[in-house]
Specification:
Number of strands: 0
Structural class: mainly alpha
Low-confidence stretches: none
Shape: extended
Order of helices and strands: HHHH
Distance between the termini: 33 Å
Number of domains: 1
Length: 71
Protein backbone atom coordinates (compact mmCIF):
# COMPACT_ATOMS: atom_id res chain seq x y z
CA UNK A 1 0.00 0.00 0.00
CA UNK A 2 2.76 2.43 0.96
CA UNK A 3 4.65 1.63 -2.24
CA UNK A 4 1.57 2.45 -4.28
CA UNK A 5 1.22 5.81 -2.51
CA UNK A 6 4.87 6.65 -3.20
CA UNK A 7 4.46 5.72 -6.86
CA UNK A 8 1.30 7.84 -7.16
CA UNK A 9 3.03 10.82 -5.50
CA UNK A 10 5.91 10.49 -7.94
CA UNK A 11 3.54 10.32 -10.93
CA UNK A 12 1.40 13.22 -9.70
CA UNK A 13 4.42 15.49 -9.98
CA UNK A 14 4.46 14.78 -13.72
CA UNK A 15 0.94 16.10 -14.25
CA UNK A 16 0.48 19.47 -15.88
CA UNK A 17 -2.17 22.09 -15.14
CA UNK A 18 -4.49 20.84 -17.88
CA UNK A 19 -4.27 17.31 -16.46
CA UNK A 20 -5.63 18.53 -13.13
CA UNK A 21 -8.40 20.34 -14.96
CA UNK A 22 -9.23 17.12 -16.81
CA UNK A 23 -9.44 15.19 -13.52
CA UNK A 24 -11.85 17.77 -12.12
CA UNK A 25 -13.99 17.60 -15.26
CA UNK A 26 -14.11 13.79 -15.13
CA UNK A 27 -15.17 13.84 -11.46
CA UNK A 28 -17.84 16.44 -12.21
CA UNK A 29 -19.22 14.49 -15.17
CA UNK A 30 -19.17 11.19 -13.26
CA UNK A 31 -21.12 12.84 -10.44
CA UNK A 32 -23.68 14.10 -12.95
CA UNK A 33 -23.89 10.59 -14.35
CA UNK A 34 -24.57 9.15 -10.89
CA UNK A 35 -27.25 11.76 -10.20
CA UNK A 36 -29.06 11.00 -13.45
CA UNK A 37 -28.59 7.22 -13.63
CA UNK A 38 -28.99 6.18 -9.99
CA UNK A 39 -32.26 7.21 -8.39
CA UNK A 40 -31.01 6.55 -4.85
CA UNK A 41 -28.02 8.85 -5.33
CA UNK A 42 -30.28 11.47 -6.88
CA UNK A 43 -32.57 11.42 -3.85
CA UNK A 44 -29.60 11.47 -1.47
CA UNK A 45 -28.02 14.49 -3.16
CA UNK A 46 -31.29 16.41 -3.21
CA UNK A 47 -32.10 15.58 0.42
CA UNK A 48 -29.01 17.39 1.74
CA UNK A 49 -29.53 21.05 2.59
CA UNK A 50 -27.63 23.63 0.50
CA UNK A 51 -25.65 24.97 3.46
CA UNK A 52 -24.02 21.56 4.02
CA UNK A 53 -22.50 21.76 0.55
CA UNK A 54 -21.47 25.36 1.12
CA UNK A 55 -19.82 24.43 4.42
CA UNK A 56 -17.93 21.57 2.78
CA UNK A 57 -16.70 23.86 -0.01
CA UNK A 58 -15.50 26.48 2.48
CA UNK A 59 -13.78 23.93 4.75
CA UNK A 60 -12.08 22.14 1.87
CA UNK A 61 -11.02 25.41 0.24
CA UNK A 62 -9.14 26.73 3.28
CA UNK A 63 -6.08 24.44 3.01
CA UNK A 64 -5.93 24.96 -0.75
CA UNK A 65 -6.08 28.73 -0.39
CA UNK A 66 -3.40 28.65 2.30
CA UNK A 67 -1.09 26.63 0.02
CA UNK A 68 -1.72 28.94 -2.93
CA UNK A 69 -1.14 32.12 -0.92
CA UNK A 70 1.91 30.81 0.94
CA UNK A 71 5.14 32.60 0.09
Amino acid sequence: MFGLCKKMDKNLKKLKFHDYQMVKLVVFLFTLFLVTAWEGFHLFVLSIEWYVYLGAVVLLSIPLAMKMLKK
